Here is the input.
Amino acid sequence: MLIEDGSLPRIFDTYVKNAAFVDQVEPNARQGRDLFVGVCARGSLHRRPEIVVTQKYEDSSGTFHPGLLVVPETSILFIGAGERLLGYNVERRERVFEDRTDYGFWGWTRHGDYILMSAELEFGVWRATGEKLWSAVVEPPWNFNVSGENVELDIMGQLKTFRLATGAVPPTNVS
Here is the structure.
């Protein structure tokens, strides 16, 4: 993969002309920071991407940085930048989702067949195949911990437990 944050590559036009799939998200936006992602073929000796994704995103004064996660067995590429979340099937060369998160994206984490998204005000769960399952509103400071089939969110010192697959609150064991 080729990644440039803050500008487009010098040979951007050549990349676009030779790519099999190009997705330019808000290319004419006046404000924002450029993000370029190029996906090269596996085993390719040349560094010319077959897939080109560009977008403009708000960087909130350098506080939030783009993040990418690839799931090799499903060919799904997850991209987060600013408030925009994008997913691509690189094998089929198509966008599979676009979503938004308020204020700013933090990162992607993989846990088995689930992709966990952290943002300033949201925690979200996707399947490794790109389908969003659920999300929860959070407020900083917050973090999460996955244990078995559950995820525990620590939101400002308050612990909340959810089923990873559904977002449902698991039943409590009362004696």
Summary: The mean pLDDT is 92. The chain is about 5% helix and 50% strand.
